[in-house]
Amino acid sequence: MEDALIKEHLPGWRSTRQRAALLRALREAADFVSATDLHAALTADGAAIGLTTVYRTLRVLERTGHVDVTREKTGERLYRPRPADGHRHYLVCRRCGHSRPVEADSVERWVENLAASTAFTAVEHTLELTGVCGPCQSGGTSSPE
Amino acid sequence: MEDALIKEHLPGWRSTRQRAALLRALREAADFVSATDLHAALTADGAAIGLTTVYRTLRVLERTGHVDVTREKTGERLYRPRPADGHRHYLVCRRCGHSRPVEADSVERWVENLAASTAFTAVEHTLELTGVCGPCQSGGTSSPE
DNA sequence: TTCGTTGCAAAAGGTTTGCATACCA
DNA sequence: TGGTATGCAAACCTTTTGCAACGAA
Fold it and tell me: What secondary structure does DSSP assign to A26-37, as a single string?
């Protein structure tokens, strides 16, 4: 039944137990997660999958635009399924890791103008936003900022 | 004579041959360079300095705001001395690596408003811009995009 | 003399690859 | 059956750390 999920995300790809499990776990995560996080969650759920396969599958999902990627300060890559409405910028809580898409049309437009005014072409951008979310300010989740 | 350079950048720090050489090399580079690039350049110039020292010194320069940092797709860190006018965003050529600061006040303001409208506080941002610079479009430097 | 600094070698940490095996179509 | 996908172990790369020796003040 996960076949549909695979056909939708990876047309032309073989449907395997591992890929189905990974896509499911990725959807459930909702927020940004690392490859090792996903692997740990899958293993805990009893799904047998190698870490290598997790990396390989995430890399393809990244190339095909099905997940957005950010980097921790440590350099670790974090993945999140890209919302259907095409949002691509997120505000991530430094304390709990929760993320929410933000509307960044004005930045997109600014980037377009930049190309026009600088002699640079094919301008691409990466925008990473972090902060402390409401719940973490009051309640105060454990880990330090 | 490089003492002045060190006192200016790192008040309270000991002036060593290695630090002087690193600051000089960093200034000469102008564009973004990696730790290993710097180390190679220094070694080629006959300056004896350990790679460890390069990393350690760059880390401090980063913390004290004397250099700006970006990340290659590979995860490698690249450093560039921060201009006197406090610019913090750069447009980097994907072909030759040349970078130029860009005026991004409108983005800065957008980020400030974001904090007000999302219940997130202490919002920080990272903006990376890449493109293909004028000379690389016509002349065409070697390496692929 | 003191204590910050250096540098080697080794560790760390995340990601990728070689290669034999397993399995989808 | 054919060729893709998987998984283990090992390789890779950049960055960090332990520790003894060095040297600026």
Answer: HHHH-S-EEHHH
Task: Set out the domains of chain B in order of their start, with CATH numbers.
Answer: 2-132 (1.10.10.10)
CA distance A67 to A64: 8
Would you say A119 and B133 are in contact if contact means Cβ atoms under 8 Å apart? yes
CA distance B130 to chain A (A): 5
Q: Does the pLDDT of residue B27 top 90, yes or no?
A: yes
- Which residues make Cβ contacts (< 8 Å) with residue A138, sequence separation at least 6? none
pLDDT of residue A139: 66
C-alpha torsion sign, points A115, A118, A123, A128: negative
Tell me how far apart the alpha carbons of residues B101 and B83 are, in angstroms, rounded to a whole number.
8
Q: In the complex, which nucleotide's C1' lies nearest to the CA atom of residue B16?
A: D24
Strands lying side by side in the sheet with A67-71: A33-34, A77-81, A67-71
Q: What is the mean pLDDT of chain A?
A: 89
| Six token digits for residue B75 | 């995860």
